[in-house]
Structures are given as structure tokens and as C-alpha cells.
Amino acid sequence: MTSKPQNAVPFNVVVIGQDGRLMYEALLFAASLRASDPEFKGKLFIAEPQPGEKWSDDPRMKQTDLLEAFKRLDAEILPFENRHFGQSYPYGNKIEALLALPEDEPFVFFDSDTLITGPLSSVPFDFSRPCASLKVEGTWPQIELYGPGYTEIWKSLYDRFGLDFESTLDLSQPDEYWKRYLYFNAGFFFYECPRKFGQRFLDYALEIRDTPPKAASLQVFDPWLDQVALPLVIHSFGGARRTIPEDTLDGAISCHYRTFPLLFAREDDRVVEVLREVTQPNWIKKVLKEYEPIKRLVYQPKGEKIRAMFDRDNLPRREQMIRNQIKKAGLWMR
Questions:
Q1: Which of 112, 279, 301, 326 is most buried (CB neighbours < 10 A)?
Q2: Residues 293, 333: contact at Cβ < 8 Å?
């Protein structure tokens, strides 16, 4: 088990929760944090978008049993307004929610489809040097024949915001290979102040979306906008590829499982063990059973059927191949 860092700073944790799939995932996240890190001293916020012109329906969580479960887990519902994103780009929630968090208090953001599997408070965060998840594939940019390459596209973005591009390169990777360039999954990130980070994240994302530099103007930003802006924001605050030990987040301490079929197909036994443990209490079970994928995969044996289909030591190289096998067996659900 990871030891607690010296002079550990209390920090807040935030995930998004709203009507539909995310509220069930957020409940699982909260239950896993409490089970895996009972010594956690910070606040746990479930950031909830509020109804407004950016939503056609009310995105708030209304189920009484769900809200009671959050109370029992000491998770605070944090309302926030969508002024720029919303239904048309829900990934923008993770940007706008930051502006509602307590100012000057360190935070860690997690995607809701994450389980905490170890003591989060033991991670030696340096909140002045942010980083984010490296559990990422080369999804952006998409290079066109005879069009700008990776270097030209990424450099145009760093230049736009007056940032040094060369210092972000991983020179151990080949030129024009996506891993050479700073690129994260936005499944987690952290910093010493959510308002500063959130405002810069918002400013960069809006400018990239609305007036991209010429080299990036033919690129598609939906759904990748948050992941395009994030490395620029992290670099601007003095962050780097990795500023926490390797086997912590996306390792022994957290698992960004993304979908329940993928969790059963490829994640470690410890992740399934935590999932089984935190879904057992009746007051949680009666809420989670309302969500079909959890009902069928966790409470019925279909998750074990998926697990038996794959050798975790010899998984298909591409995620799409895993998805296809699960779909062929009629067990894909989200």
C-alpha cells in the first residue's frame, strides 16, 4: 500500500453528476472513494449542471433514493451554470464546473466513469505542477494527406497562446508520431486553484473552437476539444506529462473504466472486487438496479460472462476489437 505523503495538503475531489447514466456512475465513484480511502479529509463534490437555455431538458438529479445515498456518502451536490457548453457539448461540463468550486483550494477532477481502488489521499500530488491521464490513444489531430502534420498543428496552438512548444516534446518518440506531442485523456487532472485552471481552460477551449489557427482550422474538435485544450492549460501552469508516481492514478489508486462491459473485459481483479464490494449495500443496490447495464452486468451474471471471454494477460491490441467481441456476444450495453 502506498504510504501517506509527508505534509499532505487536503484537497477536494469533483465528478460530474446529472440525470441519466452519469448519476449512477457518480454514485459508484462516491461509494468507491469512501470504501477505498476512509481517511480522505477533503470534500467530495458532485457537480450538477442546472437547467437553462443550453439544455432542452432539466439535467438535474431528482431521484430521492439517489440523493439520500449521496448524503450518506457525504458527497455535496454542487450546482453550476452552463454559459458556453451544455447539451451540444457535454464534455464542457468538466470545464465550467471548475468555476463553481471553492477558490484557492486544491482539487482533483475525475470523470464519473472512474472507480477509486486505493487510498487517494496517499498520492503525493504537487498541486502547483498539474498533469492529467496518459491513458490515451492518438485520437487528435487526424492528419490529412498533403495537409499540415502534427508538429505544424500543435505548434500553431502553442503559438496562439504564447506558449513554448519545443519544451513539451518527448524527443524519445519519432517526429510526426502522436506520442511525441503532449496529449492527455481528460479522465483526471488537478491543480492548486480550480477557478484559475477553469477560467484558462474555458478561454483556451473557446478560442480553439471559435477561431482556430489556420493549421488546425480543418480539424474536428467535437468531441476532442477538451483534450486539445488541456495540454496547453497544463503546460501554461508549469505542469508536465507526469508529476505523480506512475502506479497511482490509472494504476493502483484509480481506474477509469469508461463502460461496464470494458471494465469486466479488461480491468484487474482488484477493480472488479471494489465494484462488487461497493454495490452490495441495499441502500445503494436499490438505486443502481434502476440502471440496466449495472443491473445486468453487476447484479446478474452477464459481467462474469464477458470476463470469461478474455485473457487479461493477452488482450486484443485495439479497444475496438474488444468492443466487437462483446457486441457479437450480445452483451454490449451503456
A1: 112
A2: yes
**Cα distance between residue 274 and residue 111, in whole Å:** 17
Closest CA to 300 of 284, 270, 324, 276: 276
Alpha helices in the chain (DSSP H): 21-36, 64-72, 93-96, 150-160, 194-210, 225-236, 260-266, 269-278, 282-288, 292-294, 302-308, 319-328
Which set of grid coordinates corresponds to residue 144?
A: 490529412
Enumerate residues 6+ apart whose C-beta is below 8 A from 4: 39, 119, 121, 122
HSE-CB at 203 with a 13 A cutoff on CA atoms is 11
Q: Of 3-17, 95-109, 239-253, where does mean pLDDT reach its minimum?
A: 3-17
Grid coordinates given for 299:
447484479
Distance CA 82, CA 76 (A): 19
pLDDT in tens, 156-192: 999 999 999 999 999 999 999 999 999 999 999 999 9
Asked if 234 and 190 count as a contact pair (C-beta separation under 8 A), the reply is no
Contact 77, 231 (CB under 8 A): no
21-36 and 269-278 helices cross at what angle (nearest 10)? 100
This prediction has a pTM of: 0.96
Other beta carbons less than 10 A from residue 320's beta carbon:
9
Average pLDDT over residues 249-263: 97
- What CA dihedral angle connects 142, 143, 147 and 151, to 10 degrees? 100
Confidence of residue 317 (pLDDT cuts 50, 70, 90): confident
CA dihedral 232, 237, 243, 248 (to 10 degrees): -80
